[in-house]
Amino acid sequence: MNKTQENDEPTNSGKWKLPFSGKLKIDFFFLFAVIALLNFVIWTVGWLLCGDNFSHPKDWLLFWNTANLTASGDFDKLYPGITPNLPFVYPPYFPFFSYFLSFLTRSHAYIAIVIFSSTMMILALLVLRKISKINRSDFLKFSIISLSSASWLLIPPLGHISSLYLFLICAGLKLRMLQKPRCSGLILSLLMLKPNIGIIFPCLFLLHSELRMLMGWGVGFGSLLLLPFCFSKSLWGNYLAATSKIGSLISIIPPWKHHTLHAFIRSILPLNFQEYVFGAWIICIVPLVFLCFYVWYKCKNSESCFPRLFGIATLTIIVCNPYFHHYDAILVTLPAYIWFTNKEQYHRNGLYRIIGLGFLLAFMIQQVSVLYIQDGLSLVSLPLTIALIADSTDLMTCGVAHH
């Protein structure tokens, strides 16, 4: 794999020799990017020409209906909402961020969401390159592979905004590396637009003794909490009542649509053993969450390992979540990029290769199960869990915290 480059000079580190030729070299990363590009083109053209973007209720319609309810003052209808088969379970401050959609027609709202999500994805990739610079060629290949992932290929057709959360994490990491912890915490507080993504960060800030980041996060989240009270005092009560039913909502979603250990356990247990899913899930995630917390605590005196710490946190969010859709797995872009561009920070080649293999398997499994089969076991979380454990082990055992 290519090492981090401080300039834009080409590198041959990604080219591997074939055993039968001393001269012929093949850039397997380039070949993988070409195949990924073909996949991207096929699915994107299919979406543009054949997609039923307006005939069935999708996430973008949920956002548009929510914006219209907010604009008309029908706050009592926000939960569970008026979109068929798509209950609104976002926090009560979320509708005010989608308010601008109420000024648009149905079709224009969808187009606006697609443009917004695409912009956030591009910005996230550009911020990642600022975090860890690589040559233009490798950056282009990585971007193509990211955009050909099943997670991204589903975001425009569904009209989702998961790329926003990727951008917020990348921006928060970059601001912290620029020694702007309060701004970083403030940006990361916006992840509470989807609490199952953002709730872990204040705990990590505390363990890492990042009090200024925690302060910025507290100011941002406190402002979000107060916003609904300016419009309706019943919003929080309605929201809590709606989220209390989230368990039944998860149980009716096919496991292959979720990339979590919870979904994996659901998919392998027979129907008459589904009552044991929650207990088995808790047994699996407790050591993983503890591992993430311990790594952040151990590395609290290190500035250089922030990118890897954010990568570990992101993987923990994905695999340990009870409710995490395939499109939300676009967050894997961050830890995958950190792995790809920072080989010199990994002290054990074996663990480095295991992490890369985990990302590769997760990518391939997701392509098959989500885009082509759309059924079967939920297996994506397994290689991601292995990558999480391997990355955390490398940080803990190699003394990175003392660098």
What is the topological layout?
Elements: E1 15-17, E2 25-27, H1 28-50, H2 59-72, H3 106-131, H4 136-147, H5 150-158, H6 162-177, H7 181-189, H8 195-198, H9 200-207, H10 211-226, H11 235-243, H12 246-252, H13 261-268, H14 277-298, H15 306-320, H16 333-341, H17 349-373, H18 381-397
Antiparallel strand pairs: 1-2
Helix pairs in contact: 1-4, 3-6, 6-7, 7-10, 9-14, 13-14, 14-15, 14-18, 15-16, 15-18, 17-18
- What characterizes the major β-sheet? 2 strands, antiparallel
Number of helical segments?
A: 18
In which range does the helix fraction lie?
55-70%
SS content category? mainly alpha
What percent of residues are in strands?
under 5%
Domains, number: 1
Overall mean confidence score, pLDDT: 88
Number of strands: 2
Element-level helix/strand string? EEHHHHHHHHHHHHHHHHHH
- Low-pLDDT residue spans: 1-24
What's the N-to-C terminus distance? 23 Å
What global shape is seen? globular
Largest beta sheet: strand ordering: 1-2
Radius of gyration: 21 Å
Tag the structure with descriptive keywords.
single chain, two-stranded antiparallel sheet, mainly alpha, 403 residues
What's the short version?
With 403 residues, the chain is mostly helical. It is 62% helix and 1% strand.
Structure report:
The chain is built from 18 helices and two strands. Helix 15 (306-320) packs antiparallel against helix 16. 62% of the residues lie in helices and 1% in strands. The protein has one domain (15-402). Mean pLDDT is 88; it is low at 1-24. The relative contact order is 0.11. Strands 1-2 form a two-stranded antiparallel sheet. It is globular. It has helices spanning 28-50, 59-72, 106-131, 136-147, 150-158, 162-177, 181-189, 195-198, 200-207, 211-226, 235-243, 246-252, 261-268, 277-298, 306-320, 333-341, 349-373, 381-397, and strands spanning 15-17, 25-27. The chain is an all-alpha fold and 403 residues long. A hairpin with a 7-residue loop joins strand 1 (15-17) and strand 2.
